[in-house]
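Sanity check

After download, print the first record. It should look like this:
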Amino acid sequence: MKTLIVYAHPEPRSFNAALRDVAQDELQAQGHAVEVSDLYAMKFKPTIDREDFSSCYDSENFNVSLEQRHAHAHNGLSPDIRVELEKLQRADLLIFQFPLWWFGMPAILKGWIDRVFISGAVYGRSAIFEKGRLKGKRALICVTTGAPAKAFGPDSLNGEMLSLLAPLHQGVLGFTGMTVLPPFLAHHVPYAGNDGRVALLTQYR
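Expected structure tokens:
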């Protein structure tokens, strides 16, 4: 099995980095191939503009999905997008590793999705959900929070975690045909203490 871990945290010594390393080590120990895209270390550009394309579908009106589709068909994607798209297409399993910031993912990860989940390559007009072009692949979200688990739920101010993750689970991964696995949630990380964090790593492994 081939796995792509897309890691989004600016601190190399973060607990997110420890979770990334546990996943990589365990998968490799089981004989699987693992690639890691460390978005902050890569200084990945999170914004879409015309520099993303060496081809041009419409020079007067910049329609992102049409430009993506045209560039994919005419070998016009920028090198950084092409490399990441090839990683995604090789992978049998995609793991997103990130902290929950303002009820969502870090902007750099959203930018990776915006630029790499290319129209024509991973989805199309009729190639969505069960007909999505990433059908057959699996996806897992591993997310950390600063709040305890009890802060998320039907009667909490924060709401249910699965509702917060729905834009990713349904709107990105499911939309492109991937099978979405249950997320791994590491709550209360800054306050869990060393023993608590070790226990979380063991659970994830």
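If your output differs, re-run the checksum step. Summary of this record's structure: The mean pLDDT is 96.
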